[in-house]
Write a structure and sequence with these properties.
Blueprint lengths: L12 H4 L6 E2 L9 E6 L5 E3 L3 E2 L1 H20 L4 E10 L8 E11 L3 E14 L12 E18 L8 E2 L2
Parallel strand pairs: 1-9
Antiparallel strand pairs: 2-6, 3-4, 5-8, 6-7, 7-8
């Protein structure tokens, strides 16, 4: 008898890989935080000294919101409005920013989200301990640079994922 191939398809393959309607569990697992980390490039520096425009941080929040909506509804949805935005500290080209968000409330089509942008790495100038223009440091205490709250909408006919009651 010849040995079985590594590529042998098990008898229950069709059951293992059968397509079923995706469902979101009852637990608030889908409310977990989403995070993206990006380095602000020289292209992001809009003002003197490489200061990054605050709208760049809001763009990151939009990307976070999109991922949250895809995880919840299976669709990118639409950003309807910001309820509040607070710019708390400057962001410069070369900084690494973590943009985080979570869904704090869901309605029939609306999803209220809270966002926070945190600076975790910054450039270290020569006069402040850096050896070159490329010197940088991981912040011992990351700083919150922006907070926001907003509402997104996923129309009912675009919500692919069914939610358990």
């Amino acid at each position: 008898m010849a040995p079985k191939s590594y590529f042998h398809r098990p008898d229950n393959h069709d059951k293992l890989f059968a397509m079923s309607e995706p469902k979101i569990p009852k637990s608030p697992k889908y409310l977990d935080e989403v995070m993206i980390r990006l380095r602000m490039s020289l292209h992001d520096g809009h003002y003197a000294g490489g200061l990054v425009d605050g709208s760049r941080i809001l763009q990151l929040f939009g990307d976070v919101a999109t991922e949250l909506l895809i995880r919840l509804d299976g669709d990118e949805g639409l950003f309807r409005a910001y309820e509040s935005v607070e710019f708390l500290a400057p962001v410069y080209a070369g900084d690494y920013i973590e943009a985080r968000g979570k869904i704090v409330r869901t309605g029939k089509t609306s999803r209220t989200m809270e966002f926070e942008a945190i600076k975790v790495i910054q450039l270290l100038p020569k006069g402040e301990g850096g050896h070159a223009e490329s010197s940088a440091e991981t912040l011992a205490t990351p700083s919150v640079v922006c907070r926001a709250k907003g509402t997104c909408v996923t129309p009912l006919h675009l919500q692919r994922l069914k939610h358990e009651a």
